[in-house]
Specification:
The protein is α+β, with helices and mostly antiparallel strands and about 475 residues long. Helices cover about 45% and strands about 10% of the residues. Strand 6 and strand 7 form a beta hairpin.
Length: about 475
């Protein structure tokens, strides 16, 4: 496009722009990002090009706010749609992600003895996994989040097209759409149920805030579901589990997903124990604190109100491992890493609880002080255990596995938080071609990412300067290793 030269006979107000500074890099990048979003249809040009000056009239400000909220909802819907399209494309053309189909070679044979159908099925699975991993590292999301967003988009497109259309138009929020997709995915393959739920959900989503909508949408789902509650409960029991979520300031949340009757019975027992403790004359804890303490005591094997049983602690200079000293199987082993100088009181560097993060020094010293025995678990700096082994050893020995659990506490794939104790120890330079079993050639990879590295176009390599494991995606993007967790 030709741009005419500026005229020299303009009036003074126009000439005044010549004295203004040239836009900085941030402003130019912002304009480029806006143009990109408009081109993809993520943001309306009329909204993006509107005057950014905030109006002073309250009615106009609210109109502007509604426009911005609708644009955000449309952008979220477009993101969900693009994730789903990338994954669908990976299934349609897996060669981009896992290479050419080896079964098309007339001389091909599978060293693992799989059939052609099994190999092709595995290729589709690995192509989808590789695509999910690439999206995750590019958007800095968890892989499960990527899969969940794709599943939500697929459920809405197939089962709730009215809600999906309202989401893409910005008329309902992401929270409304996600809750609708989550509930719709639990409905049986019955189109009458889908239509009834879609119609009712849209009516409620357009009128209610997300929290109130979620309550009424669950009621609607129960009403239109074609299966009996007994059948659904039997299936839902298979999802029961317990997990821990790290919180701030040395605290954590333990969550249990249980059948309602057992959950109610557990809460009744905890509440009864707490209320009994509250009757003591010198008791100063609140009822909520007493419930938490009674819950922890019941799980760790102590009687409510009494100290937890002594723990056997294992340490080597900087590694403390505590496990049940008595027969109570409910008291699991824990691992606490404590700098040696901190343990001696000569430093204040924080201790680290395996699977959680930093904990206060008083707790760490208490664990060390309650130890009934000390076992050296580190490698050659303290115990002399070797960390580099000769070519006669393929299997990783216990001492080396423990060492890697300290130096690499989680899966080496970017964004994966699975602890090393649950990972495979993968030879970066393959054993079959001369690789050694030592700490420089081993990295923990969970089974999923272990397979991804060997069965897709994801590749890993050691950075010669930092020693970190950097990754290359199937589409050629380079991903740096995650920083140390603590």
């Amino acid at each position: 496009m030709d741009v005419p030269a500026p005229a020299h006979d303009r009036s003074h107000p126009t000439d005044a722009w010549s004295e203004m500074p040239w836009p900085d890099d941030d402003a130019l990048q912002s304009d480029a990002d806006s143009a990109w979003a408009i081109a993809l249809g993520l943001v309306d040009e009329s909204i993006a090009g509107a005057d950014d000056t905030v109006p002073t009239d309250p009615a106009l400000m609210l109109e502007r706010l509604e426009d911005r909220a609708a644009a955000r909802h449309r952008a979220a819907a477009a993101e969900y749609d693009l994730i789903l399209r990338v994954l669908q494309d990976a299934l349609d053309d897996p060669a981009v992600w896992v290479g050419p189909d080896p079964t098309l070679d007339g001389l091909w044979h599978d060293p693992r003895g799989r059939t052609v159908a099994a190999v092709r099925r595995d290729r589709l699975d690995m192509a989808e996994r590789a695509a999910v991993a690439e999206i995750a590292v590019r958007l800095r999301l968890a892989e499960q989040t990527v899969r969940t967003r794709a599943a939500h988009a697929a459920a809405l497109r197939e089962r709730c097209p009215r809600v999906w259309a309202a989401f893409t138009e910005g008329r309902v929020s992401e929270r409304h759409a996600v809750e609708t997709a989550r509930l719709a995915a639990t409905l049986p393959a019955d189109r009458d149920s889908w239509v009834a739920f879609d119609t009712g959900a849209l009516d409620r989503a357009l009128r209610l805030a997300p929290t109130r909508f979620a309550t009424l949408a669950r009621t609607l789902r129960e009403r239109v579901h074609a299966e009996s509650l007994e059948t659904r409960h039997g299936r839902a029991r298979g999802d029961r589990g317990v997990w821990m979520t790290a919180e701030l300031d040395g605290m954590a949340t333990v969550t249990a997903f249980l059948p309602a009757d057992r959950a109610a019975a557990a809460m009744t027992r905890v509440d009864r124990a707490a209320r009994h403790l509250a009757t003591a004359d010198d008791e100063k804890r609140t009822l909520a604190q007493l419930r938490a303490d009674a819950f922890a005591d019941l799980l760790t094997g102590a009687r409510p109100g009494e100290a937890a049983p002594d723990l056997e602690t294992t340490t080597l200079g900087s590694q403390v491992r505590a496990s049940s000293a008595g027969p109570a199987p409910a008291c699991p082993g824990i691992v606490v890493t404590v700098p040696a100088l901190t343990l001696l009181g000569a430093d204040d560097a924080p201790a680290t609880l395996d699977g959680y993060g930093p904990i206060d020094l008083e707790t760490a010293r208490r664990l060390a002080g309650e130890a009934t025995s000390w076992i050296r678990v580190l490698t050659h700096p303290v115990t002399g255990a070797p960390v580099a082994l000769d070519r006669t050893t393929y299997r990783v020995p216990t001492a080396l596995r423990r060492w890697l659990g300290i130096t690499s506490p989680k899966c080496a794939f970017p964004g994966c938080a699975r602890p090393t104790r649950e990972c495979d120890l993968d030879h970066l330079h393959a054993w079959s071609v001369g690789g050694t079993t030592d700490d420089d050639n081993l990295d923990p990879e969970c089974r999923h990412h272990h397979r991804l590295r060997h069965e897709s176009r994801w590749a890993a390599g050691r950075d010669p300067d930092t020693g970190g494991l950097s990754w290359t995606t199937p589409l050629g993007a380079h991903v740096d290793p995650d920083p140390p967790p603590f």
